[in-house]
Amino acid sequence: MTLHDLHNIIQESVNFDNDHLYNFYLNWRNPLNGECYSSPEDDWSENPSADTVTLAQLNLYEEQYLLYIFDLAERWEFFITVIRHLPDETMTKPRIVEKVGKSPEQYPDCSANYCRTL
Questions:
Q1: How far is CA 20 from CA 34, 75, 93, 103, in A?
Q2: Hey, which bits of the chain come out as E strands?
Q3: At residue 89, what are phi and psi to the nearest 5 degrees?
């Protein structure tokens, strides 16, 4: 599973349109001072692409935090915690295991008619 796969799972879980760039930061306390992986569509970024690195390659440890920022202008911030590692063969396809609470509105300030015309 790549970071891009994780991005898609997060987008699905919060019902966002998946229409903006994103970054994953390994140093969530100081994102600009650590590893960063960017959207494959980000032609300006010098960071590695999120679709070229797997979660296994990151050597994440249990209770480690990651920061995922979606829509770099609006800055939807998601803090991700590594709960535990599962053997690779136990999961064949990424999936949402549990969802808690109501999803935020991606565009809370626009009227339904305006959003449909974009």
A1: 22, 10, 24, 17
A2: 22-25, 36-38, 65-70, 76-81
A3: -75, -10
Please report, in angstroms and rounded to a whole number, the separation of the first and last CA atoms in the chain. Answer: 32
Instruction: Calculate the alpha carbon distances from 25 to 38, 68, 69 in Å.
Output: 9, 6, 8
Closest CA to 1 of 95, 96, 94: 94
Residue boundaries of the structural domains of the chain: 3-117
Q: Which two tokens stand for residue 23?
A: 């970054």
Q: What are phi and psi of 77, to 5 degrees?
A: -105, 130
Backbone angles phi, psi at 25, to 5 degrees: -120, 130
Q: What is the pLDDT of residues 23-72, one digit of tens each?
A: 999 998 898 899 999 999 999 999 999 999 998 899 999 999 999 999 99
Q: How many residues does the chain have?
A: 118
pTM: 0.82
Per-residue tokens: 88: 């690779």
Residues 10 and 13: their CA atoms lie apart, in Å, by 5
